[in-house]
Structures are given as structure tokens and as C-alpha cells.
Design brief:
With about 600 residues, this protein is α+β, with helices and mostly antiparallel strands. The chain is built from 19 helices and 18 strands. Helices cover about 45% and strands about 20% of the residues. A hairpin with a 4-residue loop joins strand 6 and strand 7.
Length: about 600
Amino acid sequence: MTKPEPATRLPEGASDRQVADAVLRLPVSAQAAERPEAFLEYVADALESLLPVRVEIHWADVDVAPPLPSAPHHVRLNVRQQEAPYATVDVVSAAPLGPHVQFALEHLADDLTLHVDAMTIRRMRALVRELRVATAAGADLEAVSQGAVDVAVRHMGAEAAVLLLSNFGKLQQLAVHGQWSDEPEKVAQLASTAQVGLEALGPMGHADAYVTVPITSSRPARCVLVLRFAPHRQVHSLTYPVLAEMASVAAPVLDARWRDRVFTELLELNRAAEDTSTAEMYGRVLATALRLVPGADSGTLLTRSDPEEPFRFQAAVGFDIKQLAPQPISEEAARAWYGADDDGWHQGVPRVLSRTGTNIHELGTATTAGADPAARQYDQITATLCLPVLRDGYVMAVLNLDNLRGVCEFGADSTQLAYLFGAPLASLLHRQNTRDLLRKAALTDELTGLANRRAFNEALARELKRAQRGGVGPSLLHMDLKGFKAINDTFGHDVGDEVLSGVAAAIRSNVRTIDVPVRYGGDEFVALLVDTPHAEALKVAERIQSAVAHLDVGNGPIHIDIGVASCEQDGADGAQLIRIADKRMYAAKRTHW
């Protein structure tokens, strides 16, 4: 900046009073400067033009307590900004200054502070006005973020900026302005700086020309703006109150857009429920909660279909669901994760328990005592957020979200967003439960509880399609009871129904849970054995025949004829497999006539 001419050209030999008057008018003539630091530099240069002095400026964010000048004659001006130290201006002279000039300098600090504050307020208003326009125009979170970053760069004179979101312990880029290096060392430096900024209480400068601004409505902060300045631009060029004001305006807007995203994804879940299996739906609900609730790293979802039943694990992230799924969880055990708040539990209010007040490892171990220790990684949990989900006045699901990084990672925003999951999740679970009941009724034989022919056809098509992608493929058992008509004629249909139910139980107990036992019609049964070679299917047939032979209604042991066909031996055409199994069943039947 070139040294300015004095605001008022003084005549040669001007009196001490005239010089003092010119000094007091300096702040008015310097108002053309846009930034407070340029304003002070203008005043400093003007003082050196008016007086036989040297002026030194010490910026508070660089040197909070500079030493007093060693010269015998000096005046120190302490300039403040928004009631905080901003700069120290030392006016140093070799000879004593006149009393009027001395008086003017001693009072100049107050005028400089007033002008710095006024300039700061004008900058705040301009930035806030532009920021509100930019964020209001944003259709989604990314657009709002980009608008805020662009405004910050323009007003603060930065060469680059990036807005980062902390999620799952990683930093996700929401918006960027300018060029950022992708060199690993530079990326690590940015991440480290951003993490410090997230934990700070407000804007702060860093020695590496970065300035960070946490943007949050509650603690801990989730978003941080990182500004990078050119090497020649000193840190004091920033006005921290302006950045703080910008953050206070941007935070609620970003929060609102994040809530909009939560609602949108919940609506997508409800739409997807029509075409998604219940098991897959549970997993998607949990994954969505983990992605959208700040601080959540792992979690589980438990449900029940009746208030008198225990809860069951339906989905888990960070835990072994195969180990947890068989574990029934009583309401008392589920409530232990919620804590002693009976009203909150029955009202579906989310609640956080942290390691500082609860032995989470002991609590988890007691809840799932039968699970393998490898599946119970409760020692890693530092805090857990529990959401009871109500339906018809009862808690029918429990969503547990866990933080693995720090006891303070669940803030007010976490519980607020988790609460949003309550009503949609209850509706979703109710719909899925109703659909499952209707589907089960449509695919289940009422007498035996086995799958019906429709369910068999769907399962066969599914397994054959899966076999096309590799694997052994399924085998079929086609079964028919010998002499069943005689049992009905001799003992009546009630006894006949008991026999059919007994045969169904014998078949079910000799196949795996992944297999599909079916009542095909009348006294015919089918079993679809998933990924089973022909030789193994023959062994299953022998076990079923042996189990059925132990059934006796007073007319001697019951015999069941079985025909076996397999994808491995007989091909992958469904209709052909059924014909082959049926043909072999009749061949077996003829050997017993």
C-alpha cells in the first residue's frame, strides 16, 4: 500500500494544535478501506506522513502481548474488535511530541476501535445478506454448501476453501472452491487441520495458512469450513467475528437440509418396502440410520410381532448377526440399553448412555450371554443411542446405534435425527409384518404348515436361477403316502389329517432350515433341497422314510414312496426335474405293490 497523503495538507510550521486536529481526523479519511487491517495500515502510514514518527502494528492473533518499544518516546494504541484485542499500534518518536498531539494520539485508539467495529458490522451484514440469498437458492445439501463456501471465499479473500462433514469418523467433502492437492501428505495435513477445527469452539488460524470454522448448532460439530490463504496474505487479514457470524447463519440451514435428506430417505424406504423382502428391509433401515445419524458407527435393530414375545435381532452392523439372531431378548434386557426412564421408553424418546455412566461391556455381555464372545464387541462402544419404536402403544422395535470413537460423539442433533426414524419405522414395520402374514398365508398349507405348491414353484425358480450363477443346484424329493385312502376310510378324515400333519413334521425335522418342505396336494409332498447333490438327496430320502415309518395309527407302519431328481444329475429345467422325480416316485411305488 502506498503511503497516503495527509487528509488535510498542513502549512509549514503548523502548530501543535493543528497537527493534533489532523491526527483526530485520520479515521474519517481512512474509511475508504474495505477491511479493518487495511484501515489500520492506512492510518499508520498517514501518521508517519503527519509526524516525525515510526509506526509499528502488532496483530493480536500473531502477537497478543508485544514488548514495549525501546525508544524513549512512544504512545501505544490498543485497538479492539467486537470487544476482543485486535491490534496494537505503537507510535515511536525520537523526540517528545507536543502535548496536543500526545493527547490526540492517546484518544485515537477509541476512534480506531469504533471504526474497526463499524467496518466489521458492515462486513457481517453484507456477508450474511449474501449468504442467506445463496443458501435459500440451494435445492439440496450440496447446493447450499457450495453457495456458503463461495460466499465465504469471496468475502474473506481466500484462495481456496472446502466444507467437510465428519461421518463414520471420516471426512466427507460437501463443497469445494479452488484447487486442493491430492498428494497423500497434503490430504493428511488437511484432514488433521479439519479435525482440530471440528473440536474448536470457534474460528481459528493455523500456522500452515489454513483457517478453520466449525459450523454447528450443537456440540460436537459435524461440519467444518477450511479456508486456505495465499502465502503472502497474513493470518490477521481475517475477521474472526465475521466468520463466526457466517457459521451461525449457515449452521441451521445445513441442519435443515440434512433433515430434509433424512425425510427423503425414509420416504424412499417406504416406497422400496413394496418390492423388498422383510429381512433386506431391516438391513436397509439400519444402514440408513447409521449413515444419517451423526456419531453412529455400528448398531442393531430388534423387533417383535407381539407385545408378549421377546425381541429378536433382525439386522446388525459391527456385530455377527448369525451369532446374535438366535438370541431372544426380553423387554427387560432391551430396556437396560435405554436406562431408567419409563416415560421416555413408552413415548419413543431416544436416549443416550455413555461409558462414563454405564458399564456398557457388562451390560452387553449380560444381554446376549449365549452369543460367541467374538460377536460381542461391547468393549469398543463408548456411547449408545437407543430408540424405542412404538406401534399401537407398545414398543415393537428397538434401534440401537453405537459410537466407537468418543463419549461425546452423540449430540443433540443425533437424538433429534434418530427421533425422526420413529414414526416412519413403526409404519414400515407394521406394513412389512402385515405383508409377511398375508404372503405366508398365501404360500402356506393351512393343515400342515408346510409351503404350498405356489411357494414351491417360486422357490424352485429362484434356486434354479441361482444355480445358473454357479454351485451344485437343488435336488427334489417327490413323495406319496401308501394306503392313505384306506386310513381315511377306516379311521375317518380327522385321523387322516393327523397323519398328514405327522408326516409333515417328519419331513420338516429331516431337512435343513434353508430347504423347502411342501404339501404338494392330497397325500403328496415335495421337498426342495437347496444346493444338494444327488447322493446327499438319496440319504435325506432314506431318513424321511425311516421317520415316517415310525408313525402308526393302528393299521401298521406308514410307508412313503420317494422319487429323487437333482440338478446335478438331471439338468436345470424345473418342469423336467418335477417329471423325473414324479416318474421315479411311481417306480418306487410299483416295487411295493
